[in-house]
Write a structure and sequence with these properties.
The protein is an alpha+beta fold and 218 residues long. Helices cover 46% and strands 11% of the residues. It has 9 helices and 5 strands. Strands 1, 2, 3, 4 and 5 form a 5-stranded mixed sheet that branches. The longest helix is centred in the last third of the chain and has 20 residues. The radius of gyration is 18 Å and the shape is globular.
């Protein structure tokens, strides 16, 4: 029997409508597959009706889960999967998930702190702005991407999180990335213009529905 080549990527979404959900970690895995131009199929897991087999593959029931059809190996961690792809498909080179600058690594937890803060509590905004400032300074000196002129694995992790942050905070907290952080805006524009992003994008409404239950939950 012939071996089915390529990968099966199971991600957050709706199989009935073939619409991709808002998970930034799923987005990371899909971006890696797209940038590597690897052959893959995309299948969807509805979070309100997770299948039993998902817990057999990953007891935590989280996604993405990706199967290498050639080896039948499953990956349940997006960072480890990106590193696996780098080893198996070295061109175009993206580098490993551990070989990334520190810039931007604390933006996402700072964003989550703002989302979870009680209504009227703006104390978490300042730390987020400082993290964005550090990222902007790095991109001004080293951009347009995290490691220079070429996209790398760090960008696949950071850009979806920045995307979520921008959409959710503007809608729920009235916060916009400061206009003076021009390098951050350029970075997002560069990422969103890539074909890999166009092939894996999801609606703003999906992002908002994903974060709404977390408002003020801290």
């Amino acid at each position: 029997m012939a071996v089915q080549l390529g990968y099966e990527a199971w991600v957050k979404g709706d199989s009935a409508t073939k619409s991709l959900g808002d998970c930034p970690f799923c987005h990371r895995a899909l971006l890696a597959l797209e940038e590597k131009q690897a052959k893959y199929t995309r299948d969807y897991v509805k979070f309100s009706d997770k299948p039993k087999w998902l817990f057999d593959v990953n007891p935590e029931g989280s996604v993405p889960v990706v199967k290498d059809n050639e080896t039948s190996e499953w990956f349940v961690d997006s960072a480890k999967f990106v590193d696996y792809l780098e080893d198996k498909h070295p061109a175009p080179a993206l580098g490993k998930s551990t070989d990334v600058p520190d810039a931007g690594t604390k933006v996402f937890p700072s964003f989550v702190a703002v989302i979870k803060s009680p209504e009227g509590d703006n104390s978490k905004i300042g730390p987020l702005v400082e993290e964005l400032k550090g990222l902007n300074n790095h991109l001004e000196s080293n951009g347009p991407f995290l490691k220079g002129k070429d996209i790398s694995s760090g960008d696949l992790a950071l850009a979806p999180k920045l995307h979520h942050m921008q959409i959710a905070l503007e809608a729920f907290k009235g916060f916009e990335i400061p206009q003076e952080f021009e390098a951050v805006y350029a970075y997002l524009e560069n990422m969103r213009s890539r074909q890999s992003w166009q092939n894996t994008q999801y609606s703003d409404e999906a992002v908002l529905s994903g974060w709404k239950p977390k408002l003020g939950s801290g």
